[in-house]
Each structure stands twice: as structure tokens, then as C-alpha cells.
Write a structure and sequence with these properties.
Rossmann fold; 271 residues; 8-stranded mixed beta sheet; alpha/beta; 8 strands
Length: 271
């Protein structure tokens, strides 16, 4: 692909620490309207993540971005990303390799979602996770205030074995609660991935389909050789790095669907 992904900076974002479930991280907030928790992807709140965040603000949402890793506003680089990954791999908050795992960060995100829901209009909030944090959005949906979980390229647990490839990224008890919500209260989940992305195995989405059924909406972008979108086989970041604000860009269409999904679930009339 030609061109570059939308980016932004920290201008206008208000920073304050938030404590939940025994963890404290800075949270950056901006906007008005229904609340959306945007969990950054590795290596942190990069200009590309802020590009997505400012787009959501412009679409009428109050966006809260927790900063559990990385340096907010810093440009992404290979060395920077590897340094962050090395820390996250041994962090007890995230349990990057564990299966059937209840992760402390999920409890923190549920507390943040409740706080945001109490301060913003609408029946609840959305939560968007990406890459390393993709599955955390699903774990956040254990709480009833989360009405619009978005899992973009959920990569944890790292898919280095068969058991990890099928694991949905949260404990069985948490998953059972989310499945029950989908059946009893109409919770819907949106998942996004590239077709050839080995970091986000198709088996993980198959697990989600088997348990959530029609409540799991999937957007799978073609990254096979010769694909119409011009994506490389290594394409990964659906909502950030691969977006081009050009007509016909499939990642742009995916971002538009995320905005529509949030509106449908968080505004009474979906408008």
C-alpha cells in the first residue's frame, strides 16, 4: 500500500491517574458523548493509536486511553516494541502465555469502564482492545456496563502451542459469563483480523464463533498474496497501521464498521 496511517499527538488529552483492582495507571481522556475505553496496542499510546483515538472523539465519543505500558506519544520502532514486549512477557498483570487465565489487567479495565460509564451518557460503554490487548476487551465484557466489546487482532495468549491458539484470552469463568450475556441480554462482540496473521490464529476466532454464535461478528481482511487491498502477508494492525483514509481501503471500512457498532450499542437510537 501507498500512503501512511492516520496519526495524532497528545494535544488536548487530559491525563489523570486511575486506580482499580489494586493497579494504578495514567489515563488520557478527551471528547464528549458515550464512553469508549481504548486499550493501546504494543508498544503503547503511539501516534497511530492517537490517530484512532482522535477519530473516535471526532465521531462523538468520550475516549479514555489507559497507559499500562510504553511512553505515551512516542513513535513506534522495532527496538522500542521489543523492549516493551520483553517486559510484558514476564508481567503478572498480563500473563502473556497463560491459558484459561484470569488477568489482573482485566479487573482494572472493568473498574475503568464502570467509572467512565458513570460519567458519560448512554446505557454503557464500549471497550476496544488491539493486538496484545485485543482479548482484554472481551474480558472487560464480564461487566454489564460494557455493551460494545471490540477485539482487534487479539494476540494473547501468544499462539506458540495448540492450546494457546484456541484459547480465547480469558478464564473459563469469565468466558462463560460473556457467553451467558450474549444469550440472555443480547451482548454482541466484534472481532477483526487479517486472514494470514499468524499472531491471531483462526482457531481463536473459531473458539469464539463456537460459543458466541451469531453474537460474534467477524471482519476478516484478506492479506493473502495478490489481495485487492494491497496488504502484505504480515499485515496485523487492522485499526491503526493498515488504515489509509482513501476510498476503497478495507481497513478504513473496518474502522467505519467499528464506529457504527459503537453507535448502535451505545446510543439509544444508534445515531
Amino acid at each position: 500500500m501507498t500512503g501512511s496511517a492516520p496519526t495524532s499527538d497528545l494535544t488536548g488529552w487530559q491525563k489523570a491517574p486511575f486506580t482499580g483492582a489494586g493497579l494504578t495507571y495514567d489515563v488520557y481522556e478527551k471528547g464528549s458523548g458515550p464512553g469508549v475505553v481504548l486499550i493501546p496496542e504494543i508498544p503503547g499510546i503511539t501516534p497511530a493509536v492517537l490517530g484512532l483515538a482522535d477519530h473516535l472523539v471526532a465521531q462523538g465519543f468520550t475516549v479514555a486511553i489507559p497507559s499500562p505500558f510504553g511512553e505515551p506519544g512516542r513513535e513506534e520502532s522495532v527496538g522500542y516494541a521489543l523492549k516493551v514486549v520483553a517486559r510484558l512477557c514476564v508481567s503478572s498483570e498480563f500473563r502473556a502465555f497463560a491459558t484459561n487465565a484470569r488477568r489482573p489487567i482485566a479487573d482494572y479495565l472493568r473498574a475503568l469502564a464502570r467509572d467512565l460509564a458513570a460519567r458519560t451518557p448512554g446505557p454503557g460503554v464500549g471497550v476496544i482492545g488491539m493486538c496484545f490487548t485485543g482479548g482484554f476487551a472481551l474480558a472487560a465484557a464480564v461487566d454489564d456496563v460494557v455493551l460494545a466489546p471490540v477485539l482487534s487482532q487479539p494476540s494473547v495468549p501468544f499462539p506458540v502451542s495448540g492450546a494457546r491458539r484456541v484459547d480465547p484470552g480469558l478464564s473459563r469463568a469469565e468466558f462463560d459469563t460473556v457467553v451467558s450475556r450474549s444469550k440472555e441480554s443480547g451482548l454482541c462482540v466484534l472481532g477483526l483480523r487479517f486472514s494470514e496473521d499468524r499472531a491471531v490464529p483462526e482457531q481463536r476466532f473459531r473458539t469464539l464463533r463456537e460459543h458466541l454464535g451469531d453474537a460474534f461478528e467477524v471482519i476478516e481482511l484478506d492479506s493473502s498474496p495478490g489481495n485487492a487491498g494491497g496488504f502484505a502477508k504480515t499485515a496485523h494492525a487492522v485499526l491503526t497501521a493498515e488504515v489509509r483514509e482513501e476510498p476503497g481501503n478495507p481497513a478504513l471500512a473496518a474502522r467505519e464498521r467499528v464506529v457504527a457498532f459503537l453507535r448502535e450499542k451505545l446510543t439509544p437510537e444508534g445515531s
